[in-house]
Amino acid sequence: MKILQGLSEGQVVQRIGRKGATVRLSGESAEVAPVLATIEGARGALKGWKARRVGTAGRGRFSAELAGVPAGGPYRLTLRCGAEQVRVKEFYAGDVWLMAGQSNMEGVGDMSAPVKPHPLIRVLTMRREWRLAKDPLHVLGESPDSCHAGARQLTREQAESIRTTTKRGVGVGVFFAREMLERSGVPQGLIATAHGGTTMEQWNPALKDRGGDSLYGSMMLSCRETGQPVAGVLWYQGESDAGGPPVAVYTEKMRALVAAVRRDLKQPALPWVIVQLATVFGSLEDGAGWNSIQEQQRLLALKVKQLETVAAVDLPLDDNIHIGAAGFPVLANRMARAADRLVYGNCAEVPMPRLKTIISPDPKKAPGQIDVVFEHVPGGLRAAGAARGFTLVDGDGKVLPSIFKTTLHGDTARLHMLKGLVLPWNTRLAYGHGRMPVCTITDGRGCALPVFAPQPFMKPNAMAPFFTTWRVSPVVTAPAVSLAELACPHLDGAGSEVRSYGMDGFINEHARWQKAEGHGYFAAKLTLAEAMKLEFLLGYDGPFRMWIDGKPFYTDIGGINPCLADEFSKTTTLPAGEHTLTVAMDLACGASWGFFLRLCRRDLSAAEVRKGQFARPAYSV
Questions:
Q1: 42-93 pLDDT tens trace
Q2: 443: CB partners within 8 A, 6+ apart
Q3: Pair 60, 104 in one domain
Q4: Which residues form the Sialate O-acetylesterase domain (predicted)?
Q5: Nearest CA to 171 among 321, 323, 21?
Q6: Are residue 444 and residue 482 in the same domain, yes or no?
Q7: Quick one: 453 and 471 in the same domain?
Q8: Shared domain check, 504 and 595
């Protein structure tokens, strides 16, 4: 009697909920008789599994079905048919995970810190033999398939030599299986099918008919070798598709791959846990493709049911592109949380953190402040050290170095920007921007925020920059009248000078005005190509007056500290042509420091603002 299909030595068979596992066996037998099965554990025969009739034999063949094998092991199986018998000395029932993708799933971390093997964690190797799971899980050359091994398969001796001498080989698999063993209490199996440096085209399901000459075909052969379903798929890939034309079709290819695996394994709701690309150093001249793949991976969780994306951007590397041995335990914990929810239905595990909304700055209530709100962040957002990772970019993708601090408040990351900063309406916000970002924010579980591509968040507006260049008078120490009674001053006389101030827009005269009494006067030119309805946005910290073309426009004699950009405003319509703006401030014995002034067009539709094809105010002195 000989088993040909259905169960191998050391195998983990897949349980189906509380029903246990079903194992369908076939093989050779010279008898014509019933097939009886005995399954024994450490304490003898399992209940209901002593000489249980499971099939029949005849015409030199037998078939049997072991239905309802309870989770656990190691078990010993004895099949009897008349005077014949065959044994499987060791097998297990639990959960089996298909590992696929490229090198970060294959595992090339330094072997200085491998995880300790566990007797209840097994792996189906690239040779398609079950053994104790121990890094390295993947030895490509021992595969019988040309897509992995090339023209010649390694001998067992050669493969064992690699396992015992390699310096690289730690991956996420064994760490993940230990996490799932702790959560479920049942044996864990891993199917090793990943291959470093591979593209989505190489994983194309359309190549299935090539069998072992294609990665997809080889993966299916490994799955079919088990004769079993799997609990879920662990996928980490995308590095090789992060440049050129493959970037644009990554989502399409991933959706096709997920659908094909589910179809071919006859598991339409098969869970997938995928890893978002981490960081990369010293390659890829343009990080846009890398970020695009990350963004597509982030959004897959919203487009494909029973799929979760796990972030890895904060994990340490062992070289320029590969997650290191120290990072894999963290990644394994995150993947296990996702698998626990998707596969086991553990409602205590919420999805990975997700971007919910970005709240644009409020010039009245919170100038210079952006709130980024996330969902699924149990324990709130936190960071070891400074919270980092957010970047502002303009409409052309140019980085705007504007965020000087990030503070965390529950589910919200608050970004603090330079005082008085002018953000173009098409400013966008990213997390993990570029190839080598420093990202430090997680939730209370230790799950990292996902990288997200630049997201629009500003309300469309036609904001002009601050006035930063003015003709300035010397301090007028004995003004003839009070500021409230002052006629529009003229700055064409001797003593005035042209001064330029910082790009933050604050016209800061503190150095000249401290402890002084009197007035300070300013003048600038405003040129309009067409008539415009303009909102004058103001901020000041002392008594303030403003004239347009010599006529009073705005007066606040009660102005006091602090000086906040855009705190006050007044709107008017001006004709085309050149206009003179004049400002006067009372120094208030040095308490006044200066003012802000910028303009916003209020006569344009949102569509016109989005197009950006409109006339803008021009400044001069």
A1: 999 999 999 999 999 999 999 999 999 999 999 999 999 999 999 999 999 9
A2: 353, 374, 376, 377, 378, 379, 380, 381, 382, 449
A3: no
A4: 94-339
A5: 323
A6: no
A7: no
A8: yes
CB 63 within 8 A of CB 26: yes
How far apart (Å, rounded) are the C-alpha atoms in residues 372 and 449? 12
pLDDT digits (tens, 9 = 90+) for 240-292: 999 899 999 999 999 999 999 999 999 999 999 999 999 999 765 568 999 99
Does one domain contain both 173 and 306? yes
Residue 154 in tokens? 């390694």
Domain residue limits at 75: 2-93
Same domain, 330 and 416: no
Alpha-carbon torsion angle 35, 40, 44, 50, nearest 10: -20
pTM of the full predicted structure?
A: 0.84
Same domain for 454 and 469, yes or no, is: no
> What CATH number is attached to the domain comprising 426?
2.60.40
Answer for the pair 530, 576: CB distance below 8 angstroms, yes or no.
yes
Residues 6 or more apart whose Cβ sits within 8 Å of residue 330: 315, 446
319 & 369 share domain: no
475 neighbors 516 (Cβ within 8 angstroms): yes
Report yes or no on 376 lying in a domain: yes
